[in-house]
Amino acid sequence: MGGKRKKRTKIVRAKPKLPKTFECPRCGKISITVEFEDKDSRSKMAEIRCGSCGLKTELEIPSIYDEANAYGRFIDLYLEGKLEIKEDGEHIVNEGNEDEGKGSELSSETN
Ligand SMILES: [Zn+2]
Known about the structure:
Elements: E1 21-23, E2 30-38, E3 43-50, E4 55-62, H1 67-80, E5 86-87
Antiparallel strand pairs: 1-2, 2-3, 3-4, 4-5
The structure holds zinc ion (ZN).
């Protein structure tokens, strides 16, 4: 009897799907995502969106561009002020609605 059994751990090398997120030039967070939409065989539209501050814009790029290329183009145009920035959604939170002035009534009951 006996016999050491070494437990073998199977190493599964799953290719991690890298989220292609980039730094937002406006809010500084790494939350820019790029999505493509085919336009024709030579060009496509890239939709650039920031999941943090809601920045959103579209630009036309050659169809061979990948996300990083599109992002580079976006940064160039953004810095030159040539981009039309749209806001994504209307998640403007109205804060500062504090209810003040409700004085607590001091009612001391003496038996
Ligand atoms: Zn942002």
